[in-house]
Specification:
Number of strands: 0
Keywords: Membrane, Transmembrane, Transmembrane helix
Pfam families: DUF4153
Number of helices: 11
Number of domains: 2
Order of helices and strands: HHHHHHHHHHH
Distance between the termini: 34 Å
Structural class: mainly alpha
Radius of gyration: 26 Å
Strand content: under 5%
Oligomer: single chain
Amino acid sequence: MFRRTRCLVFLSVFSGQNKHCRDLKHSLLFGLITPLAFSFIWRLIHRVEKVSYTTRTKKLDEIVIASGLCVLCFVYLIFCFVQYSYLFSSLFNNLPSGLSYAEYARRGFFELVAVALINMGIVMGVINFTTTNSHRAALTLKWLNSILIVSTFVLLFSAHFRMSLYEESYGYTYLRFFTHSFMAMIFVMLCVTAYRVWTDRINLAKWYIVIGLVAYMLINYVNVDTFIAEKNMERFYLTGRIDVYYLSELSYDALPYLVELTNASDLLIQQTAGSRLL
């Protein structure tokens, strides 16, 4: 009797500790985010007077930078025009010859996202390190930066469509979910960058940090397993295909969907789901 009492006390304490650990994790997360968010809002309210663009000390010459951006933007326009069918083949479910769905999505994603990040770096460099001695020169650089950002949007959307085609063909996984999340974060950063091109009211580095922190918080509070299971079930009802083994490796949040598969019309899927539940 005494041993049983001790076991019950131990189990109650242990379960309480698990609850406290979860609460502690959330408290630490908010404890780290709150001071940063407060500092950012305080900085937005109490602005520091900025030096006019005509008096800033920069290192790069406007003529050299404008010439380079003109060439780069022209190359992007030619590239998008010539490679239109290659970039947006996923919109029409057509693939370039010699490429499988996997090769098309992977190559496209890494290539296009890498170029998008490089373009963001170029725009930030032009904004922060270019000398502008007249309003006309500043306006020219703003338009060239805007064209570069629009070209980056095109590449980013193409990468998104490629990954969507890959998911429709092979299903949804953790990696593919985080891939889309990363592209969404880049999209928001590009929007902020486009706004910064035409105004000096924001600090890009601070906004990038805030966007990264918000994205991190959303990822932590979104039920990724349920989302993946739901999307895979939607694909299953449309195509009749599903990776039961991957679904069974998700957390307990995906368990109802695995149970649902035990009533599937496909006998093999039904048996596989039943065996994975044992």
